[in-house]
Amino acid sequence: MAGPTPSRLHRAARAPVAAAFVCATLLSAGPAMADDGDAEDKSAQELADAAKKELLDAKSLHLKVKNSAEDRDTRKPALVDLRLDENGNCTGELRMGTGGAKGGSVDLVKRGDEVWIKPDATFWKTQLPGRSGDLAAELIGDRYVHGTTDDPMLDGLAGTCDLDSFRDRLKDGSDRATKDELAKGDQKKVAGTEVVPLTSAGTKERITLYATADAPHRLVRATEKGSDESLSMTLTDYGKPVPKKTPSAEDSIDVSDLRGTGPSQAPHAA
User: Fold this and answer.
1) 3-state class of 256 per DSSP?
2) Of 58, 60, 67, 74, most Cβ neighbours within 10 A?
3) What is the pLDDT of residues 103-156, one digit of tens each?
């Protein structure tokens, strides 16, 4: 059985890119601001600048992105939930089309150059054409596909784990973005944390950043709401190490074993 085409897995890894540019729309490209003092003493833009600095300096994050626009598309991630660091390590999950069109999910682990992905049966059947998806689900079963970033099949999803790439896109987007005026809202609680909403006044979609009221002022949520769709991102566990545990050999199948195998010579599923 030939493996899934790299282009399909690259498409599954794009949600964090969209989220980065949502943030970039409002995070300025100005100089780093001192990240001290209470939110009451800072303007909306000063809070956004402080939050940007904390995000760009973070060595690790827990990033969750939800995109309602992808709920109806089984080949795009409607939910990305990853713990990732600046060394390219990560662990987490992608869920495809979580609304009316369910496209399955993929567990993802990356440590150094090694990558493990475990798509469920629904993912294989919706991502691969014809009988290929059924065959992949049967052959691989409840195992991880293991390889390295040198393999184009795995590299597409592994790119999702790159915190530096996410931050580069954030920085690049904020360097190019038109600086919209920010409105500073009243303090409120988000997941038990006091935050200050910072909302755009000049964009067609309503974009809001939520920065912590206390220093260090960190971005903990960003939302974009249009007429019929929404995107939200939450960021937690700044600086918390990514779990080091990786799948065992018994729970994995090497990606090289999937190359060029057909029904007659394919390995048995676990």
Assistant:
1) helix
2) 67
3) 888 899 999 999 999 999 988 888 887 888 888 889 899 999 999 988 887 877
The number of angstroms, rounded, from the C-alpha of 145 to the middle of its chain's C-alpha atoms is: 20
Phi and psi dihedrals of 91, rounded to 5? -150, 145
- Encode pLDDT of 188-199 as tens digits: 998 889 999 998
Q: Find how far residue 86's CA is from the centre of its chain.
A: 14
**Is the model's pLDDT at 174 over the cut of 70?**
no
Q: Which of 253, 242, 269, 219 is nearest to 28 (CA)?
A: 219
Per-residue pLDDT of 54-89, as tens digits, reads 988 999 999 998 887 655 666 677 788 999 999 989
Residue 90 CA neighbour count, 13 Å, CB half? 28
Sign of the C-alpha dihedral computed for residues 183, 186, 192 and 193 taken in this order: positive
> Looking at per-residue confidence, does 86 or 102 come out higher?
86
Q: Model-level pTM?
A: 0.81
